[in-house]
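Pinned message: reference record for Acid phosphatase 1-like
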Amino acid sequence: MDRSIVLSLALASLLVGVVSARDWNILNQLKGLGSSQNGIVSSGVSTNLKRYCESWRINVEVHNIRNFDVVPQECVSHVKKYMTSSQYEDDVERAADEVILHFGSMCCTKTKCDGMDAWLFDIDDTLLYHSLPREQWLLWRKAPAVPHMVKLYQDIRERGIKIFLVSSRKEYLRSATVDNLIQAGYYGWSNLILRYN
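Predicted structure (tokens):
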């Protein structure tokens, strides 16, 4: 049970959505700590911006940094580089494989499932990947599937586990969202819950 919670949280944290903005600046937030041309000075220890941004990204993934609204402006290019890299794809594949292995050893098998289990997926940047501008991807119904997530989704569905999908998308995007999910290979969910009317 504990391992399933940890794996679920790890997968969800790994796939945290990324948003960029111009106005928010991490250096402004750390203004009182001082800065240098080579990087950020924190508690007298200088780190270069690349290392700082990598550390920020990892801490978001493991949920040590919470309630952030945007990726720090200085880190947008670092996060984008990771999210479009083969390393990101490898990380997602590894997380999906670990969930499937866990199901094989701890949970119901494909032939034995009591129908009482459920799985919750956030759509945005978990099942479907999109880049800015977000509304355009949603209306075009062409947001691509996050690599390896269709395989995980289908494995969970084949086990008879009920799948619930959630999104902060607005209700008027329901039809586009459903079309996009089906085109990307996601179907057979129990319910799609959109947050805003």
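Pinned by admin. Summary line: Strands lie at 39-42, 45-48, 118-122, 162-170, 191-196.
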